[in-house]
Amino acid sequence: MKYTLNFSVNKRPVEIVIEPHVTLLQVLRDTLDLTGAKEGCGTGDCGACTVLINGVPINSCLMLAVEAEGQEVTTVEGLADGELHPVQKAFIAQGGVQCGFCTPGMLMSSTALLARDPQPTEGEIREALSGNLCRCTGYDKIVRAVQAAAEEMKHG
Fold this sequence. Notes:
- The chain is of the alpha+beta class.
- It has 2 domains: 3-77, Beta-grasp domain (Ubiquitin-like (UB roll), Roll), CATH 3.10.20.30; 86-155, Orthogonal Bundle (DNA polymerase, domain 1), CATH 1.10.150.120.
- Helices cover 34% and strands 16% of the residues.
- It has a 5-stranded mixed sheet, with helices on one face.
- β3 and β4 (56-59) form a beta hairpin.
């Protein structure tokens, strides 16, 4: 059985035919060639596959693609709008990017946090990022990057 899926990805309408058991991550990577979201664990524990559904971070490895029907999906590729998003700039400036595997998920979780709380505390940042695992940075540079992005967005 096939399913026709209509949804929006990075503000563009998409219509595709899929099997009902396919995950959103598989559709993004394999069908739409949006490879920013990564499959790290496949069980929702690492956050490397984080995308935004209507502004809310989700693990795309756990979401069936059919659940995205009529939804707005934003991937890391959709953050930059002509120029890098302030969160992307801050991650670069603060050294919050090392190997880059976790970075797309970290960026998406950070963007969602700042959209709902423009001036989060360090504890709130750490809580918002608790579903994203990083093996390289030790998190301090990532937290500083989110703080710097918050300041930039406040003044910029």
